[in-house]
Amino acid sequence: MFSATAAQSRATGLMTGDAKHVMLVGGSRSGKTFVALRALIIRATLAPKSRHVVLRFRFNHVKSSVILDTFPKVMSLCFPQLTYVIDKTDWYATLPNGSQIWFGGLDDKDRTEKILGQEYATIFFNECSQIPLSARNMAVTRLAQNCVATVGGQQRQMRLKAFYDCNPPSMAHWTYKMFVKKIEPESGKALSDLVNFSMMTINPRDNLENLPPDYIKELENLPTRMRLRFLEGKFADIAAGALWNVEMIDTYRETTNLPDMLRVVVSVDPSGSGDTDNAGNDEIGIVVAGLGIDGRAYVLEDCTMKAGPSVWANVVATAYDRHAADLVVAEKNYGGEMVRHVIKSANPYLKCELINASRGKAVRAEPVSALTEQGKIRFGGTFPELEDELCSMTTNGYMGDRSPNRADAFVWAMTKLFPGIIKTDAKSQRKHVMPTQNINRGATSWMGA
């Protein structure tokens, strides 16, 4: 049976209160989604034939994380006596009283139009750091179902509710503006109905009784930016001219069902160290990325490490074999041909290409940032240190503490997978960034286009 923690009880009270829009924001594994979904189901049981919907940016994410994971857990722990049937064609659950709970993604036009062709008594925006404001605004227009709830033996009109949850993105995101600053995200004007917007922070330490003993320790060991987000539940500062941000990375994260790869590269950013253990030098950036059959590039693995040449070369060679890679690409500014020699000594049969860094880090990174923003580059998993470095890359240079070896390797890999983002002027032999408008736009939310 489910036993709510003190923080989860407060969150439930907030969601049953007077506010129409309720946000639960905070760290990872704090129980935000579980509590919000439980509140939605309670509402469905109180109002026969009512309709409710759980929305994420991508349908495959709502399917894997909610339909196949959190939803059955909530039903089993909190409503064990309640039977339900899931329609696996249109993806909605029907309760014994005729109420329906729909599940949808905002990335598919046809599916979303079908879902938003109906009215709902409750909308739950799950992981809304990934959801564009335009998509949220469109969905809220369907928060309009008239239904009657029975509470304490008395019937009354059910109040319409919108629930939201997320690991906090940056302060530039609409969630921060709407629920923290209490302003309209686009106009910047104060919200006209402040009492209808409530927010609560709920973090992993509020859910200790339901977490593995060492989980908090894992979060404490994350890079600063990610530790503040996933442990402390704090919105990130806005870096001037940032080329990547947490919501961009989150939006284009694919943890399941990666496509087959047409081409795979192992990218190396050497430190130039020739010692045996590299103890006093920077890390060796080693990132594996592939170009999928869908035309998008995916980060597959971050093997970055601090070690001497013989060790990191073996790591590169092993990654090359493990991913059936086509090429190792390495920056030759540090070590020159010695880099190729070190890599080939670990596996003389792998193909290795050296690239000369003739431009600054920020200039090299800008077109790759544009491709990420357009959805052409995605993250096939969670890569804390790499993501932290990317979020410290700005148009004015790198703002992190140490050298961005992971980010550099990432940029080299994507440059090789998308050679069209750089062209060589035959006369000057200088490389220029191609205009962003010439890059084919990737898949974005159809309502945010």
Commentary on this structure:
The protein is of the alpha/beta class and 449 residues long. The protein folds into two domains: 6-230, P-loop containing nucleotide triphosphate hydrolases (Rossmann fold, 3-Layer(aba) Sandwich), CATH 3.40.50; 246-438, Nucleotidyltransferase, domain 5 (2-Layer Sandwich), CATH 3.30.420.240. The chain contains 14 helices and 20 strands. The strands form five sheets. The chain has an eight-stranded mixed β-sheet, sandwiched between helices.
Element layout with pairings:
Blueprint: H1 6-15, E1 21-25, H2 32-46, E2 51-56, H3 59-78, E3 85-87, E4 92-94, E5 100-105, H4 109-115, E6 122-125, H5 133-140, E7 148-151, E8 154-157, E9 161-166, H6 174-179, E10 197-201, H7 215-220, H8 224-230, H9 246-251, E11 261-269, E12 285-292, E13 297-302, H10 309-322, E14 327-331, H11 337-346, E15 352-355, H12 361-373, E16 377-379, H13 384-390, E17 393-394, E18 397-398, H14 405-417, E19 422-424, E20 431-433
Parallel strand pairs: 1-9, 1-10, 2-5, 2-6, 6-9, 11-14, 13-16, 14-15
Antiparallel strand pairs: 3-4, 4-5, 7-8, 11-12, 12-13, 17-18, 19-20
Helix pairs in contact: 1-2, 2-3, 10-11, 12-14, 13-14
- Low-pLDDT runs: 424-449
Main sheet properties:
8 strands, mixed
Number of individual domains: 2
CATH class of the largest domain: Alpha Beta
Terminal Cα separation, in Å?
Answer: 44 Å
Largest beta sheet: what is the strand line-up?
3-4-5-2-6-9-1-10
Number of helices: 14
Corresponding CATH architecture of the largest domain: 3-Layer(aba) Sandwich
Number of strands: 20
CATH topology (level 3) name of the largest domain: Rossmann fold
C-alpha geometry: elongated
Q: If you compute it from the alpha carbons, what radius of gyration comes out, rounded to the nearest whole angstrom?
A: 24 Å
CATH homologous superfamily caption of the largest domain: P-loop containing nucleotide triphosphate hydrolases
Overall pLDDT metric:
88
State the helical fraction.
25-40%
Structural class: alpha/beta
What is the strand content? 15-25%
